[in-house]
Amino acid sequence: MNQMQDGQLLAEQAQEALWDALRNGTLRDGQFLSMSQLVEILEFPLAATREAVKQACSQGLLTTWPKRGVQVMEARSETIRDCLDFRMVLDQEGARRRIQQGDLTGLDALRAQHETLRDAAAHSTASDLPPQAIGIDLSLHDYLAAGLNNPQLAAVYSANRMRMAIIQNVRPFLQVRIVSAMEEHLAIIEALQSGDTTAATDAIRHHCEQTLQWWGVD
Q: What single-letter DSSP state applies at residue 65?
């Protein structure tokens, strides 16, 4: 491997490390860091870290401040509203396309996972439920995004998902929200299985509205 290829590989690995740090909450919303602090957290060389920061800035995940370092995206009300609205619009289109194309394989498994988690959350206070809930919550949104069948839309959806991860780390799922969120998802799944486009898009809109309410965003 030549020096250029080696540098590119390091940059890609540093980007994935940065993405992981944003997803798992190592880097929190609004947090300021110097480049040296970020290098230490990611454990990659400065050049690779800078390339990762450029990618994150292009997607609105970080902001660079001259002589100060970088700042993680802030989970402000307008940002939460915009990110959820963005996801809703693409989820609705993904649902339309899946119904139109009859591409609904995998819904039975999704339904079963959602029902199991809903029932567990309704009768348990186990500490492992919130992390599990995030994974199952994302599974339906990923399913809808895959229905777009467009790599460019998939790329912007993925970038917004990273912004959503930063937001979700601010206020993790509580038991009561797990139950209602799973019910909202099950309504979407029911509409998809019935082939009812209007019901599906309405259920997705309702889920977005309820999530905004959960966040206290008008």
A: E
The one-letter code for the residue type at 101 is: Q
Give CA angle at 137 (177, 135), nearest 5°: 115
**CA–CA distance, 189 with 193 (Å, rounded to integer):** 6
Confidence grade of residue 170 (pLDDT, cut at 50, 70, 90) = confident
Q: Tell me the C-alpha distance between 72 and 57, whole Å.
A: 9
pTM for this model (two decimals): 0.88
How far, in Å, CA of 53 to CA of 16, rounded? 11
Pairwise CA distance, residues 46 & 127, whole Å: 38
Query: Which of 73, 17, 65 has the alpha carbon at shortest distance from 45?
Result: 17
Query: How do strand 62-65 and strand 69-72 relate by DSSP bridges?
Result: antiparallel
Between the alpha carbon of residue 72 and those of residues 164, 192, 197, the distances in Å are 13, 36, 37
List the alpha helices (DSSP H) in 24-128. 35-42, 46-58, 77-101, 107-123
Domains of the chain plus CATH, in order, are: 3-72 (1.10.10.10), 77-214 (1.20.120.530)
Structure tokens that stand for 37 in this block: 């602090």
Task: Identify whether the C-beta of residue 212 lies closer than 8 Å to the C-beta of residue 81.
Answer: yes
Number of H helices and E strands in the chain, helices first, is 9, 3
Q: What is the pLDDT of residues 128-142, one digit of tens each?
A: 666 778 889 999 999
CB neighbours (10 Å) of residue 88?
Answer: 20
